[in-house]
Amino acid sequence: MLRKQTFDNNIYMKMFRWAYIFLLSSICFTLVTSPFFLSVVFLAVDSRNIVPFTVSLLFFGPAMGALFSVIDRFKQDQDVSPVRQFLIGYRRFGVRGLLMWLPGWLGSIIAVVDIFFFSKVTNGQWLIPFFLLVAIVGIALSINCWYFQVKNPRASIKDVVHLSIYYVFRKWYISLLNVLLYLLLPLLMLLKPQFGFLITPSLLAGLIYLNASILHKNGDSSSEVTAK
């Protein structure tokens, strides 16, 4: 006798549900980062528009915190209401996500400006690796902060930052990999907007979350932080 297929045991229904979650999560991310979307669509990528592009990148902070919240809930329950959970995550982690993005955002700005300046100075090219390191460490710190804040929603920003700094250097290879994945996000949005805004947010954020979870898994005793 054939077993009646239900949503729970039908692989095609599950795949459709997962695709729905994947797509809706990316759309929510795109809506929050709409200033960057509008910049990509309506502005040319040149030095005259560097200010609107730079400012629009600030919105990635709250969006990443909310998207990590969706991914974390999906990991726990194997299902999630993407829009509802994204809104919950945005309300809970929006402001903190923005604050935690500042090290990566400011570090990137400082690195780009200084690299441009010192590349025109005699022997200034020897300082370029240092400025690249500043940007990498800043972005890695922001990524770790988003992850550990979502995993420890009651923890203070201070505790989350301290833990994140520790793992940036202890697991530097994971930090570097996550930075490269994260940089692909705005890059693909610029080069292939139709793909970058609908597919890459959930895909790359999921990979970053998976890598970051290795920090949590390998350091359970020290990665659980509580609010003071």
TrEMBL record:
Segments crossing the lipid bilayer: 20-44, 50-72, 93-118, 124-148, 172-189, 195-212
Domain of life: Bacteria
Alphabetical keyword list: Membrane, Transmembrane, Transmembrane helix
Keyword Ribonucleoprotein: no
Protein name: DUF624 domain-containing protein
Organism (species): Candidatus Enterococcus clewellii
